[in-house]
Amino acid sequence: MEKNVALIALFAALIAALGLMPKLMLGFGVPITAQNLGVMLCGTILGSKRGAMSVLLFLLLVAVGLPLLSGGRGGLGLFVSPSAGFLIGWPVSAFVTGLIVEKWRGPSLAVVAGIASVIGGILVLYAFGIVGLSIALDKSLLETTGLVTAFVPGDFIKSVIAGMLTAALAKARPASVLSVS
Amino acid sequence: MISLTSPIRTKAHYWPASIKLGSLCIATALLFLIEDIWVLISVFTLVMLTYALPGKVFLLNGLRQLRMLWPFILIVGVWHVWIGSFVDGGVIVVRLVSAVALANLVTMTTKLSDMIDVISVILRPLHALGLKLKVVEIAIALVIRLTPVLVSKGSQLSDAWRARSERAPSWRIILPFIILALDDTDHVADALKARGGLES
């Protein structure tokens, strides 16, 4: 019980820290906001339920007014802004990612966690995000899909990184990768 | 940790948080029913006047929070200029900015502790489903405490990287970062247990 609560709180803090730390670079000098990498990792490491709870806890703190989203954003305004769909989709995205890692014993954990991150962190998340954008900007689903495709390559790279990190953590701290233990 | 509550005290700081949140919900719902551009502009002007009421610092703080909307305003603006329906574009932009500004107004005038009290009330019905309020409250406190700890550990790792490399820190520092964090978790869990645990 204590360990679970500590892990859920820690990963919520990890999502926050990944957004507040100095920007990290991808190989080609492109800065990444690592916050949705944090959401993917919640799913791949904590598993479906705990991962979703961790993301919910993070969103709760953003909603009550802590500036924990990247760039120091926070507060209730975010939940009526055009990007609200992505925020609402985050817990679901972590849940789906975690569920796939829990259920699928595939070739290797890195591949499974990577594919799970693509399905949960891109397909599921963007479905929510696109609906949110289309409501806020009053555009059709097809038009808003066009607007967000620019972000897919970056998130794809993050999925690959999430897969590799999960496999490496399973070696370094096997007891903490709850999704497969 | 700094919250987004405004340090400028206003009368609204002393209103009950539940009433502010309730009226915000109603106001936002109504806002999305308005189709007339002039009504929307009047609402927007009213919201901005409310921002200006507590003084310049409050107003500038509020406007800074709205800056994150500019990419969306740009997209909608370019789009509607392109298809030539200026009024429709105006309706979308003014409504969007007003909705976010109203919500931020509640955030700026409500203390963190008042917000958490409202959450406790909202979560109470979930008690029947096995959700312990005490656990949620401890988890909230843990996140608030752990976030600055993790940010400082992450920054130290970045500094250590920079001391050894000409290039900017890459995603590779995330692995040691998470391992450091996970080892902390064990201590936190032990500390929670040592102080009576969460089961009772």
Characterize this entry briefly.
The complex is a heterodimer of chains A (181) and B (200). Chain A has helices spanning 2-20, 35-46, 48-63, 84-103, 109-137, 141-148, 152-172, and strands at residues 24-25, 31-32.
SSE layout and pairings?
The complex is a heterodimer of chains A (181) and B (200).
Chain A: H1 2-20, E1 24-25, E2 31-32, H2 35-46, H3 48-63, H4 84-103, H5 109-137, H6 141-148, H7 152-172
Helix pairs in contact in A: 1-2, 1-3, 2-3, 2-4, 2-5, 2-7, 3-4, 4-5, 5-6, 5-7
Chain B: H1 17-31, H2 37-52, H3 56-66, H4 70-83, H5 86-108, H6 112-123, H7 133-164, H8 174-194
Outline the structure in words:
The complex is a heterodimer of chains A (181) and B (200). By secondary structure, chain A is mainly alpha-helical. Chain A has a single domain (2-176), classed as Orthogonal Bundle (Arp2/3 complex 21 kDa subunit ARPC3). Chain A is built from seven helices and two strands; from the N terminus they run αββαααααα. Chain A has helices spanning 2-20, 35-46, 48-63, 84-103, 109-137, 141-148, 152-172, and strands at 24-25, 31-32. In chain A, strand 1 and strand 2 form a beta hairpin. Chain A is globular and about 45 Å long. The model of chain A has no long low-confidence stretch (mean pLDDT 89). By secondary structure, chain B is mainly alpha-helical. Chain B has two domains: 11-122, no CATH class; 132-194, no CATH class. Chain B has eight helices and no strands. In chain B, helix 2 runs parallel beside helix 5 (86-108), helix 3 (56-66) crosses helix 5 and helix 4 (70-83) runs antiparallel to helix 5 (86-108). The radius of gyration of chain B is 23 Å and the shape is extended. The model of chain B has no long low-confidence stretch (mean pLDDT 88). Classes of the chains: A mainly alpha (181), B mainly alpha (200). At the A-B interface, helix 1, strand 1, helix 2, helix 3 and helix 7 of A face helix 4, helix 5, helix 6, helix 7 and helix 8 of B.
